[in-house]
Amino acid sequence: MDLQTTIYLVVGASFALYIGIAIWARAGSTSEFYVAGGGVPPVMNGMATAADWMSAASFISMAGLIANMGYGGGLFLMGWTGGYVLLAMLLAPYLRKFGKFTVPQFIGDRFYSKTASTVAVLCLLTASITYIIGQMTGVGVAFSRFLGVSSETGIYVGMGIVFMYAVFGGMKGITYTQVAQYIVLIFAYTIPAIFISMNLTGNPIPQLGLGSGFTGTDMALLTKLDQVVTELGFGKYTTTTAGSTLNMFVYTMSLMIGTAGLPHVIMRFFTVPRVKDARSSAGWALIFIAILYTTAPAVAAMAKLNLHGTVNTAVKAGGDLYAVEASIKAEERPDWMKRWEKTGLLKFEDKNGDGRIQYYNDKTKNADAKAKADAAGWKGNELTVNADIIVLANPEIALLPNWVIALVAAGGLAAALSTAAGLLMAISAAVSHDLIKGVFVPNISEKGELLAGKIAMAVAIVISGWLGLNPPGFAAGTVALAFGIAASSLFPAIMMGIFSKKMNKEGAIAGMLAGLFITLFYVFAHKGIFFIKGTDFLPLIGGANSFFGITPEAFGAVGALFNFIVAFAVDKVTKEPPEHIQHMVEAVRIPRGSKAVDGAH
């Protein structure tokens, strides 16, 4: 069976599975629509949480980022997994005990203010919409490569699939669909890694293969990779960092507290019966996430070595298969390169007209590598490889069987669609439950609220699809900005709501607005405001990364600090919360018992 037919069959079967589960798990009440009835077992909820969490960024982009950044890319692993530890210890059990549907509802009730709830909705929508753009773009990329359609058509198909199981199933349908999506994506990620680890190291366990010997040599795989990249003018893979030590620390912290503050992840812990189950769910989620996250560094290193090997194996120079003098003839480039060229994510330009592909760092400060490249007549790097293709193209680069390539296609789509569904659920709940029922129409019936939730979900799908088709300039490149927004706005408010019984509504509102707007301002100054792509506001803040060298993607932790400072400053000069609110905070912090999840305002 040819590759394209295999991909159609595997992806089609996965879609049929998701839609079948959605029909079986239709939501018939607001409790089922928002929190799956509050009765999801911890293991299943952990699996669904893992699928909700492991987005297109984790499945498609993370290994590519690590492959490009080397050692410095480890901050994504530390930040995202560390955030779950914070979530399990500091947030999930207490929020579950509070017994509400959504994060804005917790903030509104804890800070006894509909204004606080509305501001929380604003923060939630900003973070979720920024995040969802990357998911819809990822759907388009996967469809355009594997199903032979345009990325626009891919996004439309993705919207239709999400509509089927999210609008009709609500959180109940999404939860059980995400369990299936986790199984699909984890097999899709690990099976190719096992194949490639066997090929390169003889060890079937990728995590161990990363530290094993490179086949046919007497050196370790990472040592071989360091040799390859340094000869081609790139930085040493095992020591390269992402900017300054301060920026790496702040970036990691931003990802950690952003993870703990993402509303679509927090909502998952409202779906379990008890406080104990919320903590247990977080533990299971960590285990399920760890399977992929510990595999990612191996995938990154092995994919980078394979990529260099593909381009640089045509000519042996000095007895070294990967020497800088070696390059492949353009006409002999493998089929996988030609297929990915059609997507625009891989590009070849013959700058010196020699009919060969030179893939090296033409901006290198390595004098030896530069001298060799000049002596060989190279006129600059001729191959551009988007980091997002590393995982998706990895099985093709390694010449794995067609069914493995098809499985990776299904896994990439499962990762993007599962997170998109979770984000859409958070957006829908914020609009229908927190704004319509909580602010504008408090007496709306359960049937009316359920209809409003489904309409809000459908509208959110249309808007997210449109944003995927027309991504704003500042959000098209990274979901790290979404984590920064959640870190700077929602996380401090939730923390203060749980652990500071004296924090009042004025402080919380001022803090959320301060954290949100200072982060957005710093991001906009670097990236340009919505639909004003390339706009340069850097002079307003004194230049690029002007705040102690911190990049905009890492600024969320700084925004969170401003949030805390402003909140406590305002709290000091305003009236403290009512007594019943302070007693409620103390009761929530007692780690025993729980309310039924009723979502009552």
Helix fraction? 55-70%
Rg is 25 Å
CATH architecture call of the largest domain: Up-down Bundle
Q: Based on helices, strands and strand pairing, what is the structural class?
A: mainly alpha
- The overall strand count is 4
Terminal residue distance: 57 Å
Count of runs of 4 or more consecutive helical residues: 24
Quick overview:
The chain is mainly α and 601 residues long. Helices cover 67% and strands 2% of the residues.
List the helices and strands and how they pair.
Elements: H1 3-24, H2 30-35, H3 42-53, H4 56-69, H5 74-98, H6 103-110, H7 114-146, H8 151-167, H9 170-201, H10 206-209, H11 221-231, H12 245-261, H13 263-266, H14 275-311, E1 328-329, H15 335-341, E2 346-348, E3 356-357, H16 367-375, E4 383-385, H17 390-397, H18 402-440, H19 446-469, H20 480-499, H21 505-527, H22 538-541, H23 556-572, H24 579-588
Antiparallel strand pairs: 1-3, 2-4
Helix pairs in contact: 1-8, 1-9, 1-18, 3-9, 3-14, 4-14, 4-18, 5-12, 5-14, 6-7, 6-20, 7-8, 7-18, 7-19, 7-20, 7-21, 8-18, 8-19, 9-14, 9-18, 11-14, 12-20, 12-23, 14-17, 17-18, 18-19, 20-21, 20-23, 21-23
